[in-house]
Amino acid sequence: RDMGILTVAVVSTPFRSEGPNRTRLAIQGLAALAQSVDTLIVVPNQNLLALSNASTTLVEAFRYADAVLLEGVKGVTDLIVKPGLINLDFADINTILSKAGRAMMGSGQAAGANRAEEAAYAAMSTPLLGDLPTEHATGLLVTIRGGEDMTLYEVDTIMGVIRDTVAESANVIFGTCYDPSIEGSIHVSVIVSGIKMDQFTPPAGKVRKTAADSDVPTTTTDEPAKESTGLFGFFKL
């Protein structure tokens, strides 16, 4: 960072069962790391329990944790390095993340007739962290990925869903990029800044997908919906 190079760290924190000493060391490490990076993306392993049930294996849980960490990186880098109709640069990203305090990251992917709306709702839901008060957000950075079949109408639908969940004063920046590996699906990632950690409630232990008052079906079971999935972590800046 001192050399003017964009530096992003993506890390996870210990499970509660690992004991207070591991937690204390992790917090100290995060504080030190935050001084050397532009953005620090932290995913609490403990919150994987919100996406697990009695049959979830340890290997499956850690694979999911890896997927969350990956999305934290791709949500930032894809807007810069992947080709698309609407590309952003670091100045755009810096507008949302600079001096933002704490922020959160979510993503969702969906296929089918209502894929745009479902992916947007999945991205704005919080299976890992509980209820996210997006009405308090001061900024959002939105990444929309899809194949060549992604339409302008679908992009407009996604941004409509997201804008309806935040205050009019929130600064919303979005970009789109092509990803042939998910042809037939649409993936939405959001970085929500200006969130205070005491403004939302922790998860109750089940996956919850919120579709507000729309006709999109909701899921309250112990397993993620097959056609649309969401990931959430939080940033500590």
Structural overview:
Residues 86-204 form the Tubulin/FtsZ 2-layer sandwich domain. This is Tubulin/FtsZ 2-layer sandwich domain-containing protein. Keywords: GTP-binding, Nucleotide-binding. This protein has a single domain (8-193), classed as 60s Ribosomal Protein L30, Chain: A (2-Layer Sandwich). Helix content is 30%, strand content 24%. It is built from five helices and seven strands, in the order βαβααβαβαβββ. A seven-stranded mixed beta sheet has the order 1-2-7-3-6-4-5, with helices on both faces. Helix 4 (115-124) runs parallel beside helix 5 (152-164).
For the secondary structure, the number of strands is: 7
The second-level CATH architecture is 2-Layer Sandwich
CATH superfamily: Tubulin/FtsZ, C-terminal domain
Q: Helix segment count?
A: 5
**N to C succession of SSEs:** EHEHHEHEHEEE
How confident is the prediction overall: mean pLDDT? 74
* CATH uppermost class: Alpha Beta
State the main characteristics:
24% strand, 60s Ribosomal Protein L30, Chain: A
Summed up, what is this model?
Pfam families: FtsZ_C (PF12327), Tubulin (PF00091). Residues 86-204 form the Tubulin/FtsZ 2-layer sandwich domain. With 237 residues, the chain is of the alpha/beta class.
Helix-strand blueprint:
Layout: E1 8-13, H1 20-34, E2 39-44, H2 58-81, H3 90-97, E3 102-111, H4 115-124, E4 139-146, H5 152-164, E5 171-178, E6 185-193, E7 228-236
Parallel strand pairs: 1-2, 4-5
Antiparallel strand pairs: 2-7, 3-6, 3-7, 4-6
Helix pairs in contact: 4-5
